[in-house]
Specification:
By secondary structure, the chain is mainly alpha-helical. It has a domain of 80 residues. Helices cover 76% and strands 0% of the residues. Helix 4 packs across helix 5. The chain is globular, with a radius of gyration of 18 Å. The two termini are 25 Å apart.
């Protein structure tokens, strides 16, 4: 049951990504068009925008969705060299491990202790 739930959730996220045409927003052209609006958001609440960008980047990289390269370039352009590097470093380090650890948590670790074994 857990295996089916995880597979259905991953498929659902990928289908939502393409159904909402979010991949069109992950292009250099759309980044250039919406740069002014993003700058206004970042000026209003830089921590929230930075964390939201980081979370979105983790999801894109963990699900291997197209656009991770554009997001890497966008982080530098939108947050500057120092903060762009900091924001991109965590997802780049953690995203490849998420599928592995989700497999370990859902499939390898038992949901309840084995009866009669130590």
């Amino acid at each position: 049951m857990r295996k089916i739930t995880l597979v259905v959730a991953a498929i659902f996220l990928v289908l939502i990504f393409f159904a909402l045409d979010l991949n069109s927003y992950l292009s250099l052209h759309s980044l250039k068009v919406s740069l002014g609006q993003f700058e206004a958001w970042r000026a209003a609440s830089p921590v929230l925008v930075g964390l939201s960008f980081l979370l979105f980047y983790v999801i894109v990289a963990a699900l291997s969705l197209p656009g991770a390269a554009v997001l890497t370039l966008a982080a530098g352009a939108l947050f500057g060299l120092l903060w762009g590097t900091v924001i991109v470093s965590l997802p780049l380090a953690s995203a490849p491990h998420l599928p592995f650890w989700s497999h370990v948590i859902y499939f390898v670790m038992p949901s309840s202790p084995a009866s009669g074994t130590g």
